[in-house]
Amino acid sequence: METIRQIFDLLFGVNPELRQIIWVTLRMSFFSTLISSVIGIPLGVLIGSNQFKGKRLLNRILSTLMGLPPVVAGLIVFLFLSRSGPLGTLKLLYSVTAMVIAQVVLITPIMTGLTANLISIKAPLIRETAAGIALTPLKRMLFTIYEVRVQLISTILVGFGRAIAEVGAVQMVGGNVQFKTRVMTTAIMMQTNMGHFEFAIALGIVLLLIAFLINSLVNRIQDRQIT
Amino acid sequence: MKKFVLFIVLGVMVISFTACTKAPTNPVIRLSTTTSVNDSGLMSYLQPVFEKDTGYTLEITSAGTGAAIEKGRTGDADVLLVHAKASEEEFIGEGYGEERVPFMFNFFVVVGPESDPAGVKNAATAADAFKAIVDAGQAFVSRGDDSGTNKAELKIWKALEIDPVGQEWYISAGDTMGKTLTMADELQAYTFSDKATYLAHDNDLALLLEETDDMKNTYAMIAITSARWEDTNYEGALAFIKWMTSNKASKMIAEFGVDKYGEQLFFNLDQ
Predict the structure, then answer these.
(1) How far apart are CA B84 and CA B90, in angstroms?
(2) CB < 8 Å from B in window 110-129 of A
(3) Are strands B79-82 and B28-34 parallel, antiparallel or unpaired?
(4) What domains appear along chain A, each with residue ranges and CATH number?
(5) Do domains B25-106+217-268 and B108-215 have the same CATH topology?
(6) Residue B17: which pLDDT band, with cuts at 50, 70 and 90?
(7) B146/A contact by beta carbon, under 8 A
(8) Would you kindly state where each structural domain of chain B is located, as residue ranges?
(9) Is CATH 3.40.190.10 what the domain over B25-106+217-268 is classified as, yes or no?
(10) B96 versus B270: which is more confidently predicted?
(11) CA 20 to 30 Å from B133, out of A78, B184, B209, B233?
């Protein structure tokens, strides 16, 4: 009971810390999803619509990358961005940018794989229609994307779900720094480590509600596309 | 068939639940300690000898001080080994333990970049060092996790009447000493650490200030009383405390770290 009041107070009261954490979470998740989609969806369309030499191997690599453990992705990005790493001079470690980079590494293969799957089912039909209208390759890609836009929205939501739920990679490269790179998931982890279990669960519920709200909003957009 | 399977599943769930809530049997002592103690390697060094001498089995969990003490409140530990006097006294005041037994100490240290732009090397106390860091506009990484180390650090800021929380140069990690040192190393910033973890950790930070009066760090043990949790292994906890304060243990503690780091990492209180 006390914890529920605490959470309410943090959400709507004078202390801006929780709202700030939510804002960082949303900002990071949005950009991670956006970049992963911009790279992953066209790539997925290309792979799904075409037959080419080495497609089987590529699919296998893609499948493996889709299962890349977040902590491994986090470690790799950390080593790249570290002072002693190749990109150390960029001083990106412990920033929201670093977190987005790690998430893009994780989520792009997922977006690519899901899109490729989706397209390979619809590809023959689209090819027929596109052939009939004689489209350029670029226009054909945009046409394909438009044709499957409803399912793509679901795919993007999967990407977003991954982004907002990620904790391992984001903790490693972001550092969970107060007021800077602390997001909902790393805050929950920290509170759990400190023994504040009730508070951690309450934060978890807030996170779930936010994810639910966003899913509902996007589903509305989806529905409008169907009709 | 379906009903049978459901019954089995429910049965397994009920049994495992009761197993979870059942208290451990007497030969096992659950020690809840802090990451600073555990990460130094002291407990893995003492544990086999303790177990051989007494026949008890030691189950050690480590967490930040706040979480470590919380385990005593939730009945998930038999004995605590922590270093936060105020929190320990609060814990005893709430009736979870009878007394705190301080038995060893070491010092915190201020570490930072080799170049030492704030001139911490020349400070006489940790407070002077902290002030120098702020005056030089240098970054400071804090545990930020309510641990014993964090509380000791905050005490120094309080004495200076500076509130570092939210300031641009104050990086609050909310993490263990090891991770905090990694962060300070990456950012080449200053931080406040216990000496043992600093030495055991792989980094490029220089030891700039140590052994000042305001950086003394005292470790104490508290046996969880059976008044609050009747299933706790009170005898086991007392046996642990007795062994840890024995001459044999004192000698082992004094020798710990000497061959690896050339110096003692922990000092006995009666020395």
Answers:
(1) 10
(2) none
(3) parallel
(4) 2-226 (1.10.3720.10)
(5) yes
(6) low
(7) yes
(8) 25-106+217-268, 108-215
(9) yes
(10) B96
(11) A78
CB B216 within 8 A of CB B227: no
CB contact under 8 A, A175 and B175: yes
pLDDT bin (cut points 50, 70, 90) of residue A83 is: confident
A91-110 pLDDT tens trace: 999 999 999 999 999 999 99
Structural fold of domain B108-215: D-Maltodextrin-Binding Protein; domain 2 (3.40.190)
Interface of A with B in 174-193 (CB under 8 A): 175-180, 182, 186-187, 190, 193
CB-CB neighbors (< 8 A) of B68 in chain A? 195
Q: Do B66 and A175 touch (CB under 8 A)?
A: no
Asked if B212 and B124 touch (Cβ cutoff 8 Å), the reply is yes
What is the ipTM score, two decimals? 0.76
User: Residue B263 CB: number of other CB atoms within 10 A?
Assistant: 9
pLDDT in tens, B221-249: 999 998 887 788 999 999 999 999 999 99
The residue among B47, B31, B42 whose CA lies nearest residue B81 is B31
pLDDT in tens, B72-103: 988 889 999 999 898 999 999 999 998 999 99
pLDDT tens-digit series, residues B199-216: 888 899 999 999 888 899
pTM of the model: 0.78
Please give the Cα distance from B195 to B177 (Å, whole number).
11
User: Does residue A207 contact residue A24 with C-beta atoms inside 8 Å?
Assistant: no
The answer for A 60-79 residues in CB contact with B (under 8 A) is none
CA distances from A200 to A175, A185, A186, B146 (A): 18, 10, 10, 15
The residues with which B61 forms a beta bridge, in sequence order, are B32
